[in-house]
Amino acid sequence: MKKLILASTSTIYGSGYLEYLLPTLKSFFKGYKNLLFVPYARPSGISYDAYTKIVSEAFKKIDINVFGLHTYSDKHQAIEKAEGIFVGGGNTFVLVNELYNQDLIEVLKHTIANGTPYLGTSAGSNIAGLTMQTTNDMPIVYPPSYYTLGCIPININAHYLDPDPVSKHKGETRETRIKEFHTYNKIPVIGLREGSWLHISGDKVVLKGELTARWFVKDKEPIEIETNQILFSYNL
Question: Which pLDDT score is estimated for 21?
Answer without folding.
Answer: 98
